[in-house]
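[Meeting: bench + compute handoff]

Bench side (C.D.) handed over the final construct sequence. Compute side (W.E.) agreed to return the predicted structure before the next meeting so the bench team could plan truncations. Sequence as handed over:
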Amino acid sequence: MLLFVGLGNPTPNSENNRHNIGFKIIDAINNKFKLSKQKPKFKGLLTTGSISNKKVYAIKPLTFMNNSGICIRELMEYFKIDAEDVIVFHDDLDIDFGKVKAKFGGSDAGHNGIASIDKFIGKEYSRVRIGIGKPKNNIAVNDHVLKDFDEDEKTELESIKENITDNLSILIEKKTGFIFKHRKQ
């Protein structure tokens, strides 16, 4: 049994923010693998299904980024999911836009969503870090992550989502140390 978590903020004006890339990945997984219809449960939008012959839960926490751990812990306790069977998809400033890296454990590197998850379930879970790049032109970090993707990024985002969903079975097997090969369109 696996739990996929996509980090983001649940407001309509946040939908296309860089910070919401985790939500976009969960939507792409739901669509590609035909998971169940999203239902509000465990303080998030939950879907279920099977991928690579494994039972999968996928959730987009509605607790806002900085409280993501609350939702995840509640779901894990209910379904008795171990932390090592959790894979979190989130934005990462320290990775160039378009690059995607998977790792197991580690520090939160200043990401408040990851810090919340660490607080509620520990650090023994996998992370898929999706690069959004550093802010340019002296833009504050908060402004950068809460800004919508620009038109060029939106085009490349489709390729990123496809790349992740195409390689999901490899990620499920390895859960760590996996660097997605990015195909530029």
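W.E. noted at the follow-up: The chain is about 35% helix and 25% strand. C.D. will use this when planning the next construct.
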